[in-house]
Amino acid sequence: MTLAAYFTVLLIHLVAAMSPGPSFVVCVRTAAVNGFRVAVSLALGYALGAFLWALAAMAGLALLFKAVPELFIALKVVGGVFLLWISFQMWRHAAEPLDIPTAGSTPRSGLSAVQFGFLTFATNPKTAVFFGAVFVGLVPVDTPLALRAALLVAIFVNEFLWYVVVGRVFSLPTARAAYIRLKTPMDRVFGTLIAFFGAKIALA
Predict the structure, then answer these.
(1) What separation in angstroms does the CA of 138 have from each of 8, 56, 61, 69, 149?
(2) 10 domain residue, yes or no
(3) In-domain check, residue 54
(4) Which end of the chain has less Cβ packing within 10 Å, N or C?
(5) Res 101: pLDDT
(6) What is the pLDDT of residues 17-76, one digit of tens each?
(7) What is the structure's pLDDT at 43?
């Protein structure tokens, strides 16, 4: 694997991470509601999810999905249902003030945010297919183990730093004040977006 190919993989992943999706929407809401510290924990959960799927793709899970499409379909449905559940909770509690704890609200503790971020990311098996497609084209089978490990670490860092930036921007006082002022309509907009992404994952 050449150095150019290595950085190409990282660039492709960064562009994919920056594209709008359920992870972005959840991160924006978490930062605005719970602040930067919890958003960083959420970003850590995302990074762990990206690391998991990249490792799985490198181990050949994308090929397994191709060989056993029923497994891929089942995981897509589970992921879609999970996002639809998040959407339902957002709509259900949209009119409630932020200081009322609810079972379906975005997690407030660092540990629960890590878990929530990991689940949000890990329930999208299409990520493994994405990594599998990229790795097949750019990571030769004879790539040394050390270089493969460096690639996985870089993907982890990529995902983490991007969502730390998102969390920082949307946890700023101006952004948080705007969210508090417009909480009900914004939660319903976010909930609708999450439902759209969930349906897209399950049905695509």
Answers:
(1) 8, 16, 17, 24, 15
(2) no
(3) yes
(4) C
(5) 40
(6) 877 678 888 898 889 888 899 999 999 999 999 999 888 888 776 667 777 788 778 877
(7) 96
DSSP per-residue letters across the chain: --HHHHHHHHHHHHHHHHS-SHHHHHHHHHHHHH-HHHHHHHHHHHHHHHHHHHHHHHTTHHHHHHH-HHHHHHHHHHHHHHHHHHHHHHHHTTTS-TTS--TTSPP-SHHHHHHHHHHHHHT-THHHHHHHHHHHHHS-TT--HHHHHHHHHHHHHHHHHHHHHHHHHHTSHHHHHHHHHTHHHHHHHHHHHHHHHHHHHHH-
State the Cα–Cα distance between residues 111 and 100, nearest whole angstrom: 20
**CB distance 51 to 149 below 8 Å:** no
How confident is the model at residue 103, as a pLDDT? 43
Find the domain containing 134 and state its range.
23-95+105-203
On whether residue 29 sits in a domain, the answer given is: yes
Q: What is the total count of domains within the chain?
A: 1
- pLDDT tens string 82-107: 778 878 877 887 777 655 344 455 55
Q: pTM of the predicted model, to two decimals?
A: 0.75
Angle of the 183-203 helix axis to the 22-34 helix axis, nearest 10: 150
